[in-house]
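Problem: given the chain below (302 residues), write out its structure.
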Amino acid sequence: MKTDIVETLRQPEYTGDNRCLPCTTVNLLIAGVVSLVLSWRSRLLGAVAFTLAAAVIYLRGYVVPGTPTLTKRYLPESVLALFGKEPEAPVASGFTGGVEAETDTAAPTESDTEQADDSDGAQGSTTNAIDPDALFLELGVLEPCANEDDLCLTDSFAERWSSAIDALEETPPDGAAVGESFGVETDGDEFSIEQHENGRTLRQQERIVGQWPSQAALLADVGAASALEAYDPAWDERSPQQKGQLLNGIRLFLEECPQDGGQIEYGQEVVESCCQSHDVLTVTCSESGDRLLEFPLDEIEA
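Solution.
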């Protein structure tokens, strides 16, 4: 009977390996404060209240109703970081070169602007954050769509990109070929591609240099890297962060799915992690179901 009651109360989705440490800590603090207030009237009452609250937190993950939703919605990222819960990326971010992607949000100084103008012209620095759409328009990769208020691939780039993907479908690249296509310095290290369910991870020895949500997304990026190299005179000098940013950006404009040639669908989903939820734009192959991209909607709005 006791076992049945315990199992009824238990919530595996919020306990064990799924336990949210910030949720548990906040609930224990609240239980402690309430128990302390009650103990002013009766020490026994305070002790019993805390014991019951701790038991509920142990079994259910929280005692305050709605804690998981409230934590995801209102706890800032800085607070989550204190508990070892860094915000989880909702998408395999593509090629990174093994360097943690960071963007410089500070306003550029006059000297920075002059240096960028001197080195790369209107294309900007090859290391700082860039505007992919603006660069693609400048390079002739994108152009205003003929029948809608949006941007589309130019015919010449679409043809080059499609041909590159077709070649990769006939002879799928191994780890070394993928690393070479992105210009990663080998230093004598070996590359390998690991498969995790549908996802793909590119490793250089123990270092992860790229992650994709599917084989189709990987082929799209390798093909795009080959095509962009012909259009962008600064491609070889661009940082891993910039290359990853550009490849993620151009993947949004795929006109048909790699491998099966099917249509591409755009949607919106909520991606859940332990302590956070993200609204993301999804790009998916309609026939195979392969995910090409998940992109945080708040970044698109920004």
